[in-house]
Amino acid sequence: MATKRHSYPSILSKFSDLTVLVVGDFMLDRFVYGAVKRVSPEAPIPILNFNGDELMLGGAANVVSNVAALGAKVIPISVIGDDDAGTQLCTLLKAANVDQSHLISSNGRSTTRKTRFVAQQQLFRFDEEVIQVLNDADRKALVAAFSTAITSADIVVLSDYGKGVLSDGVAASLIDVCKAAAIPVIVDPKGADYSIYRGATAVTPNRLELHVATGLPTSSDEEIVAAARLLCQQCSFDFVVATRSEEGMSIVDADTSVHVPTTAREVFDVSGAGDTVIAAFSLAFAAEGEREVATEIANVAAGIVVGKRGTAQTSRDELLSNLTFGWRDHAREVLDVTAAANLSAAWKHEGLRVGFTNGCFDILHVGHASQLADARSHCDRLIVGLNTDASVKRNKGPTRPINSELDRASMLLALKAVDAVVLFDEDTPLNVIRSVLPDVLVKGGDYTVDTVVGADVVISNGGRVHISPTVGGYSTTATLRKMSSTSPEKRNAQ
């Protein structure tokens, strides 16, 4: 893929100028958390000891939540029940500062509520729902609300969960309105008959849904392409974005195909990951118009949320940091101060403790490795500040450094303890510390807390300073002295 990393900030910066209409089946997700310590004597089932519960926006409402979290304006349009679940759903939307003026509350509908029981993983799900198409009055009210809102839209998302809001020709009516207004419409589909979405800009089925809709195998890249092209031909889609779980995503049109590999990430909960995909893809597509770039951005966004609990979202800053640095190695490249600050903020957003230490690290030795390992043991992610060549010369003299700043950075990044390296040109790392604001500031044993540069900044921000024990007998100066004493010139002189 030819995506340039420097284009990501430009694309994501446009999100705040975009308006997205989200139409579909709005649901309420409830998560009940607890611990399982024994099996019931009444039946072979686990007993969940209740620790608490949490309400979240679900279904198409989770797409709304994802769009809002990414910084865009979102207009939710749906028919929900005039019931407790509907009231709770509106309360959550209000808390997210989302406009609810186009939501229609109807006595004739029931708001779907899904309750998931979770210990270390989901144990059981309990659904409360009535699947039914819209009555004539609710249908007319929905189309009217949509036709009014379309004038302010940059893109439309139809999120179909098969509960009835988009059934019985409603999706087709909305797509017609979009085509007349020349507004792209992206559909998260449901069921086997995709002709109900005919004329949409794109659909985003997963691998199984693509197989069900076409009857074709969808295991390999070639099979995905063949099935997606059949859909484009049969339903007049511009392209298909197929999500493939651990294998990433594929974007296919009549002439081209691109396969985006997954972003490696520990999976905690896949609830709502498809909602994140369509929200991030739609925003990036509306901002840039490049399908391949939008697919890559959506792929990374999904990789973030599956590492979180519940129907989670990602912020624009968190997404940008992970687009720039990648999940697999986080920051396996040399950073500037701004990039290091963004990365630190993203890690903190995940609930991770960020550590910071610094040095010249001219010739790595056992003492360095030991101190870095100790530093990493006190945090979840360790950023190392590295003096530039010019800074080392000022501090150590004209013959130093022995190794260039990029070579020194590469050696540090090869260590398991180091998660990121940031270069600084000043004599001290104070500016970096002020920008990164680590939770833990680490220095070697020859320092005390009151002599550590930046200690006051970290402590006043709620962090702490850790003095790492020094391994005796190791230093760069001693290493250079030993090398000099064993050189051929020295031996010949003797």
UniProtKB/TrEMBL annotation:
Protein's GO biological process: ADP-L-glycero-beta-D-manno-heptose biosynthetic process; lipopolysaccharide core region biosynthetic process
Catalytic-site annotation from UniProt: 275
InterPro entries (alphabetical): Bifunc_HldE, Carboh/pur_kinase_PfkB_CS, Cyt_trans-like, PfkB_dom, RfaE_dom_I, RfaE_dom_II, Ribokinase-like, Rossmann-like_a/b/a_fold
Pathway linked to the protein: Nucleotide-sugar biosynthesis; ADP-L-glycero-beta-D-manno-heptose biosynthesis; ADP-L-glycero-beta-D-manno-heptose from D-glycero-beta-D-manno-heptose 7-phosphate: step 3/4; Bacterial outer membrane biogenesis; LPS core biosynthesis; Nucleotide-sugar biosynthesis; ADP-L-glycero-beta-D-manno-heptose biosynthesis; ADP-L-glycero-beta-D-manno-heptose from D-glycero-beta-D-manno-heptose 7-phosphate: step 1/4
EC code(s) of this entry: 2.7.1.167, 2.7.7.70
Oligomer status and interactors: Homodimer.
Protein name: Bifunctional protein HldE
Annotated organism of origin: Aliirhizobium cellulosilyticum
Phylogenetic placement of the source organism: Bacteria, Pseudomonadati, Pseudomonadota, Alphaproteobacteria, Hyphomicrobiales
